[in-house]
Specification:
Layout: E1 18-23, H1 28-38, E2 46-53, E3 73-77, H2 83-89, E4 95-98, H3 105-110, H4 113-132, E5 137-143, H5 166-185, E6 189-194, E7 196-198, H6 207-216, E8 221-224, E9 230-235, H7 236-249, E10 255-258, E11 263-265, H8 266-276, E12 284-287, H9 302-308, H10 316-329, H11 331-340
Parallel strand pairs: 1-2, 1-4, 2-3, 4-5, 5-6, 6-10, 7-9, 8-12
Antiparallel strand pairs: 9-11
Helix pairs in contact: 1-7, 4-5, 6-8
The structure holds nicotinamide-adenine-dinucleotide.
């Protein structure tokens, strides 16, 4: 039985190790979360982690190599839109942590169909399965982009959703569908909205790995427009620790913003990457701006900090330096991906 929303809960994982289903666990953030859960300093006790991933262009089993031999890891190659498979994987799960998505804004502008199908309908398929099989907690991993551009101030969790891109609107839609399962059915759904992540194993179409790998190859870096778009940058491990805090101590039906407080213009970020690689400013090539490019995102994350005691552990300086070093040392990871990928041109 699903617990009614008002029933007090004990801390998730306090009484016994958890069986967790991670969707999109071969992607950038899902694989970090899986490595964290199965690593030596996991914030939660874990009996098993089942990864469900369709291995789209963005999914890569190599991202799970550090934990591939852990007997608690089960990898299932499949699609979150496959209701039969989802129904087989749900029974007995203490938690579903839902990362699987089409995640690249530029691709959503080029064509939105897969975004609507995976991000909205796929999320619905998972929620139906979780409800039918009485899953304990459904953690829906969303993004600050659902609030749209924020020229001034910061958006708290009550701020209206005004997504701009098809990607962001598909995520906003899935947030609402997820929360509706809590309100209608009493399913324990929790939603997180995090700012831009960076770190190892990020597919080299996103700005930091794209620029880093181009700099390491002696190429220029294509900067959108005037480079004055502002993003808050959080290390992916800090995001994953925040998700563990929400799983352990969050409340059903609640939304939690997650951010770092480190806001950088794209030009400032690019300059930091150039400096880290000893490259000078003439490596920047200005390219036509992204269509309807949101000027700024900025989340007010005081709720998760005050209620769950979470805060980032890594400074931007330390995290970016470690990330730069990782791409420098892991050419064998990213080079084949770049050769295989059909990256949208800038
Ligand atoms: P990613 O593109 O690196 O990974 C997505 C993963 O989902 C891939 O492994 C892919 O194979 C899998 N997938 C895609 N469609 C699937 C389907 N139909 N069935 C099963 N698996 C499928 O994305 P990411 O950057 O790791 O983002 C993960 C989640 O976090 C997304 O929901 C995204 O909206 C959210 N998010 C990302 C960021 C960020 O900065 N990257 C910030 C906040 C929130």
């Amino acid at each position: 039985m699903n617990r009614p929303p008002s029933e007090p809960r004990s801390r998730l994982g306090a009484d016994r190790p958890l069986d967790v289903l991670v969707t999109g666990g071969a992607g950038f953030i899902g694989s970090c979360f899986t490595r964290l859960l199965l690593g030596p300093d996991s914030p939660l006790p874990v009996a098993s982690v089942t990864v469900l991933d369709a291995l789209t262009y963005a999914g890569n089993r190599e991202n799970l190599a550090p934990v591939a031999d852990d007997p608690r890891l089960v990898f299932v190659h499949g699609d979150i839109r496959d209701a039969r498979l989802v129904g087989e994987l749900m029974p007995g799960r203490d938690a579903v942590v839902h990362f699987a998505a089409e995640s690249h804004v530029d691709r959503s502008i080029a064509g939105a169909a897969e975004f609507l199908s995976t991000n909205v309908l796929g999320t619905g398929t998972l929620l139906d399965g979780a409800l039918r099989h009485s899953v304990g907690t459904f953690l829906h991993v969303s993004t600050d982009e659902v609030y749209g551009s924020v020229p001034r101030g910061s958006t708290d969790e009550e701020h209206p959703l005004r997504p701009t891109s098809p990607y962001a609107s598909s995520k906003a839609s899935s947030d609402l569908v997820a929360l509706s399962y809590q309100r209608t059915h009493g399913l324990d759904v929790r939603v997180t909205r995090c700012s831009n992540n960076y770190g190892p194993y990020q597919f080299p179409e996103k700005v930091i790995p794209l620029f880093m790998t181009r700099l390491l190859d002696g190429l220029d870096v294509p900067l959108y427009g005037d480079g004055l778009h502002v993003r808050d940058w959080l290390h992916v491990e800090d995001h994953c620790r925040a998700l563990c805090a929400v799983l352990a101590d969050g409340a059903p039906g609640e939304v939690y913003n997650i951010g770092s407080g480190t806001e950088l213009t794209n030009l400032e970020l690019t300059t930091r990457l150039l400096d880290a690689c000893g490259a000078d400013r003439n490596r920047i090539r200005q390219v036509a701006d992204r269509k309807a490019h949101d000027l700024r995102y900025s989340v007010d994350d005081s709720k998760i900090r005050a209620r769950l005691g979470w805060k980032p552990q890594r400074s931007a300086e330390e995290g970016l330096a470690a990330t730069v070093a990782w791409y420098r040392e892991n050419r064998a990871w990213w080079e084949p991906l770049k050769l295989r990928a059909q990256l949208p041109s800038r």
